[in-house]
Amino acid sequence: MSDESIVMSDENMDTMIIHTRLSRVASTDRRLALVVVLLPFLGTLAAIALAFNGLPPTITSIVLFAVLYSATMLGVECGYHRLFAHRSFKTTKVIEAILAIFGSMAFQGPLIWWAATHRRHHQYSDTEGDAHSPHLFSTNENPNLWRGFIHSHMGWLFSQESTRPAKWASNVKDLYREQLMYSLHMNYYFWLLLGLILPAAIGGMVDGGWQGALLGFLWGGLVRIFFVHHLFWSLNSFCHLVGHSAFPGVNDRSRNVLFLVLPTFGQGWHNNHHAFPASAKCGLAWWQIDITWWVIKTLSVLGLAWDLRRVTPEQIEMRLRNPH
Q1: Are residues 105 and 187 in contact, defined by beta-carbon separation less than 8 angstroms?
Q2: How far apart are the first and last CA of the chain?
Q3: Number of domains in the chain
Q4: Which of 16, 56, 88, 145 is the most buried if burial means most Cβ atoms within 10 Å?
Q5: 136 is in which domain, residue-wise?
Q6: Does residue 17 fall inside a structural domain?
Q7: What distance in Å separates the CA atoms of residue 324 and residue 115, rounded to the nearest whole number?
Q8: Rounded CA gap, 81 and 74, in Å?
Q9: Is 67 contained in some domain?
């Protein structure tokens, strides 16, 4: 065998090893995506079945649901999204850690991966390269919006091209350089499990026995995750298909969707956000409720947040006059 043949064989072997490893990673990711989608769904079905068979949620489990829903939704929207993905304000390391932990408890994925996916969403919004656009499968002749809806809502989690495209981490180098953020990112599964164990432990202590622990685990854990999942995923699906464009010149198909404003703590003003993604405030008009902005503003008043990036009336007017 010639030296050239040996080199070619080595190159082919390296290629085969790389493809095998990528295939294994993709297979693992798909199994994880199945857990992400199915586990909260099955937990919610179990909670409903128990409620109709003599074990309804207690006041404790309802409070756990409400408190942890609010905490984890803020963790994703205020922390993962506005703070880490867009750097729309600055805060203390303690607040950063709290928001990152709450965001991890939402089961939306590790912090740095989430931020990378979202930054890519804005970079390629509703075009090839966007991880979860509902319009990737549509043409003028064949809209195929149902397939697009499923993909944008949760189907993209099963696609390696969406979850791990080439050089996916290249636009989050700033987060990798921060030791605290990297540490929280690497301990994602610990925080996720804490978000399930904590409500079970509290339910068991307050209501007593295994039934209290079970209801705490279901309503404060899996049911809460199910609602956070599907309401936040609706920003990818509904908010790029239906609703109102306050800034129609935005180079994507983002929409403001009123029924998502309250449950997503302000991100239902999605077209506003795409018009001014760096703004810490998405509810731009005085009447547009933005719970996350109220939290950020409160932190600012307390001296715990600063350098809040906001849009001026002049910038809004200029964007309306010159949409492109």
Answers
A1: no
A2: 62
A3: 1
A4: 88
A5: 42-321
A6: no
A7: 26
A8: 9
A9: yes
Which residues are within 8 A (CB) of 70 and not within 5 positions of it... i.e. 6 or more apart?
none
Cα–Cα distance list, 287 to 5, 212, 282, 283 (Å):
72, 41, 12, 8
- Selection from 54, 64, 53 nearest residue 203 by Cα: 64
Backbone φ and ψ for 193, nearest 5 degrees, come out as -65, -35
Predicted TM-score (pTM) of the model is 0.91
HSE value, Cβ hemisphere, 13 Å, CA-based, for 50: 19
- Lookup: tokens for 254: 């983002």
Secondary structure (3-state) at 229: helix
Q: Which residues pair with 269 in a beta bridge?
A: 256
Q: Which two tokens stand for residue 60?
A: 């404790």
Q: C-alpha angle with apex 75: 118 to 228, nearest 5 degrees?
A: 80
Residue-wise pLDDT for 248-278, tens only, equals: 777 789 999 999 999 999 999 999 999 999 9
Any domain includes 7: no
Summarize pLDDT for 203-248 with one digit per residue, the tens.
Answer: 999 998 999 999 999 999 999 999 999 999 999 999 999 999 998 7
